[in-house]
Design goal:
five-stranded parallel beta sheet; about 15% strand; globular
């Protein structure tokens, strides 16, 4: 398996990243394969494993990696895109898991995505000297890990054509929320907004193809405003912000501790929950003000915040770490050609 690369994801996420890696690695000898949890074979010390999303989704893979002597392991990269507890610097309280999350924790369900499961997984891997490179998609997650002595790199998710574009459709949905609807806190906020007269259309299902690909693009193009109501207060949802930007829906979000690289007032708007209804009503009636933000956000998303730049940045980080074997040469080639 020397010189081979294994990309692990939970479908359908990670498709664009996989395709970009395949394009980069095609410039050199080597083979990139795709897997969930877990491939029949994993690369040896001359190859690499790239885990996209959340290490907690891949318990079988990491059990196998931990059993290998360190000198025989492939080079391991994790691009962690799921929530972690807030950093102390944020002043935010640790969230209380809801009943469904508690049940998944107790059952050790690999589908768990609560902040504590995610954190404990990364902490245990760190104790086992895994991964070689840890990348997180939000500055707050980077700060949280830094406070606990775990090195990581912040690289945001980037725009790719599959995330959407302006279709020029009639925007007949005033306010849209797109995301999982099994989160009690989120549902309370959406109910409160409806009680204040905000006409919110709330949809979302991880397994439903109606909310992926071209169907998602068409839906977002019908929305004037896209709400960002995270699972926990202050949580960063860069993907939802980017989806709104890419489809010219104005994103109105709860306050985010550090929303970089997105700039409030330029790329999206932030408001406390008790002020959100008023902000929504203002921008629904002021089309000129709404267009000023969405036009700037759209230009920035497709021109600056690209997935290609994000993947290239991770490859540069990998190359700077001086990885072992064939992966070292390929990552340096990718860095030089990017």
């Amino acid at each position: 398996m020397s010189g081979e690369f294994l990309f692990c994801r939970r479908a359908p996420s990670g498709t664009v990243v996989y395709e970009l890696l395949a394009e980069h690695l095609s410039r050199t000898a080597g083979r990139l394969t795709l897997s969930g949890d877990c491939a029949e074979q994993i690369p040896d010390e001359g190859g690499a494993v790239w885990v996209h999303g959340n290490a907690a989704f891949f318990p079988k893979l990491f059990r196998r990696l931990k059993r290998l002597p360190r000198q025989r392991r492939p080079f391991v990269v994790i691009w962690h895109n799921e929530p972690l507890p807030p950093p102390r610097a944020s002043g935010l309280a640790y969230p209380m898991p809801h009943a469904r999350e508690i049940a998944k924790i107790l059952l050790r369900d690999p589908r768990a995505t609560d902040v504590y499961t995610n954190w404990f997984t990364l902490r245990e891997l760190h104790r086992q000297a895994l991964p070689d490179v840890l990348v997180v998609s939000a500055p707050g997650r980077h700060a949280f890990l830094s406070e606990r002595g775990i090195p990581s790199h912040f690289v945001p998710l980037g725009y790719a054509a599959e995330m959407g574009r302006d279709l020029g459709l009639e925007r007949d949905i005033d306010v849209l929320f797109l995301g999982a609807l099994d989160v009690p806190r989120r549902n309370r906020i959406l109910k409160s907004l409806r009680g204040q007269g905000v006409n919110v259309t709330a949809v979302g299902d991880w397994k439903n193809p109606a909310y992926w690909g071209e169907n998602r693009t068409a839906l977002l193009n019908r929305a004037k405003i896209l709400l960002n109501v995270p699972r926990t207060a202050g949580e960063y949802s860069g993907l939802r912000i980017l989806l709104g930007m890419a489809n010219k829906a104005l994103v109105i979000s709860e306050p985010i501790w550090d929303p970089a690289p997105y700039v409030p007032g330029r790329h999206f708007l932030m408001a406390p929950v008790d002020e959100m209804a008023g902000l929504v009503r203002r921008y629904l009636t002021d089309e000129t003000a709404r267009a000023a933000v969405v036009d700037e956000a759209y230009r920035t998303a497709i021109g600056e915040f690209t997935m290609e730049r994000s993947v290239e940045r991770i490859l540069q980080i990998v190359a700077s770490r001086g990885p072992r074997g064939a992966w070292a040469e390929r990552s340096r080639v990718c860095q030089n050609q990017s």
